[in-house]
Amino acid sequence: MVDEYDFWLCDLDGTLVDVEPGYPRDVMGEVGDRLGVGFTDRDAEHLWYGMGGVRDRVLDRRGVEPEQFWSVFHEVEDPVARAEATYLYDDAEAFLGSVDEPVGLVTHCQQYLTDPVLEHLDIGDWFDAVVCCDDEVGWKPDAGPVELAMTDLGVGYNGHVGALVGDDPDDVGAAWNAGLDAVHVERHDPDERGHCVLGDHRIQRLDELH
After folding, report:
1. pLDDT digits over 33-88, tens only?
2. Is there a contact between 6 and 155 (Cβ–Cβ < 8 Å)?
3. Residue 111 CB: number of other CB atoms within 10 A?
4. Which DSSP letter does residue 10 get?
5. Which residues lie below 8 Å from residue 150, measured CB to CB, with a gap of 6+?
6. What gap in Å lies between CA 37 and CA 63, rounded to an integer?
């Protein structure tokens, strides 16, 4: 499958990297303390990963407005601590090491959080373009961030065929909205998400793309 595409785009969190299980619990515990809300370990997992829109349901159940949650969350989270708690999936290096075509990163993770992670894991040179979503660039599933990465790679709508790999429905939507094939890597059991995510390809591990 690797040779079928002229370029590859990848999501970061949950696709190439993840955090140690205790980190979301610690962060959400502090967020909850500042909000005066007791988040359970299960709440912390759902708030961190936001699978299937469950994040909004947790906040609604706890009486917390999303804007309030994100404001406190960004106050609490430390970029260095997050980077140090982040690990690389064992199949990520094998996959990206096998790709000779241009590779771009398109992530919802903000620049101030992304840069320390790439530096800590020493993987910044794996990517020929890095796009961090924001209000100006846009947010997946919008095509904007994907199209910006394609432009940076020089493969934007000029006959090149590409794919985007991600773990979230927004990644699939962003790929399709930009005219790319979507590869969904199932890092979490569909029962945990509450639904099954489908793309053009559905895999359990990135090395299946070989």
Report:
1. 999 999 999 999 889 988 767 899 999 999 999 999 999 999 999 999 999 999 99
2. yes
3. 13
4. E
5. 7, 9, 104, 156, 157, 162, 178
6. 9
